[in-house]
Write a structure and sequence with these properties.
heterodimer, A: four-stranded antiparallel β-sheet, 11 strands, about 0% helix, B: about 110 residues, mainly beta, seven-stranded mixed β-sheet
């Protein structure tokens, strides 16, 4: 079955970087766009960006531009999201999600989430 | 950016009730709207895409509608397992944006 499995929880200091992975299985990896979405404690869902696993092109929300890097490895069907210059308010659960086949900006399958805690 | 204004922020209803959640887009997004259900400690789950279309496996008590830039998620027969926070999301333009969420509880 279609599955997205994310890397484990991280604790980082302010100013550090974090890299979260999301391994896809059960479908043709390059056929579906992939998203990153986060949820800070007590807050709603926030879209961070999108990657096209086929060519590797990306787009991200303006607030993350310059701080986020999204990449993919087609040999392992894995995408990565690296966020640098971490701040306390980057503490959140980070999700990867697969776009819909006909509507890539919708999100039909989600990873289990990765908790990133920024603490001194 | 397209703003998604979702209301109410929370509601409480009885089992079997009909529940309505609305989402207003700040400009025309045609039908490019999705609805998600999010339970604590779990990943969000897609319920509705393209404003009306029920995702495979989602109970038929969930439905979506549209009137101009106003979108509605209806739960026709609220069940205990529907306790969750519900989000709308516009799928029309970058940056993709979510509504603020509606927390649904049982009386």
């Amino acid at each position: 079955q279609v599955q997205l499995v994310q890397s484990g929880a991280e604790v980082k200091k302010p100013g550090a970087s974090v890299k979260v992975s999301c391994k896809a299985s059960g479908y043709t990896f390059i056929r579906y766009y992939m998203h990153w979405v986060r949820q800070a404690p007590g807050q709603g869902l926030e879209w961070m960006g999108i990657i096209n696993p086929s060519g590797g092109s990306t787009d991200s929300a303006q607030k993350f531009q310059g701080r986020v890097t999204m990449t993919r490895d087609t040999s392992t069907s894995t995408i990565y999201m690296e966020l640098n210059s971490l701040r306390f308010d980057d503490t959140a659960v980070y999700y990867c999600a697969r776009g819909l086949e006909a509507r890539p900006y919708g999100m039909g399958v989600w990873g289990q989430g990765t908790t990133v805690t920024v603490s001194s | 950016d397209i703003q998604m204004t979702q209301s109410p922020s929370s509601l409480s209803a009885s089992v079997g009730d009909r529940v309505t959640i609305t989402c207003q887009a700040s400009r025309d997004i045609t039908n490019y709207l999705s609805w998600y259900q999010h339970k604590p400690g779990k990943a969000p789950k897609l319920l509705i895409y393209d404003a009306f279309n029920l995702e495979t496996g989602v109970p038929s008590r969930f439905s979506g509608s549209r009137s101009g830039t106003d979108f509605t998620l209806t739960i026709s027969n609220l069940q205990p397992e529907d306790v969750a926070t519900y989000y709308c999301q516009q799928c029309d333009n970058f940056p993709l944006t979510f509504g603020g969420g509606t927390k649904v509880g049982i009386k």
